[in-house]
Amino acid sequence: MQKFIFSLSLAIGLTTLTIGQAAIAQQTTTRTGPYGNTLPSNRSVNNGVQTTTRTGPKGNSAVTNRSVNNGVQTTTRTGPYGNTQTTQRSISH
Fold this sequence. Notes:
Layout: H1 2-20, E1 26-32, E2 38-46, E3 49-55, E4 61-69, E5 72-78, E6 84-89
Antiparallel strand pairs: 1-2, 2-3, 3-4, 4-5, 5-6
């Protein structure tokens, strides 16, 4: 049952990602902090890879790339100083 629910969730998510690519081809969100600092976030989808770029108050950027391949979701985060962290999520049965 868990495998079926995961497969169904994954299929719906991939369909939403595919259909939603045009909807979030380029989305910009700007957050304003309590002292008036603005923190823009840009999100885009290209060839099934969702990329989010966050810019901090001092101009440093952090980039997150998220993709799904063969039932495994891979998230790669690159911080403002170039350090990278990769996380993979999958279901075991």
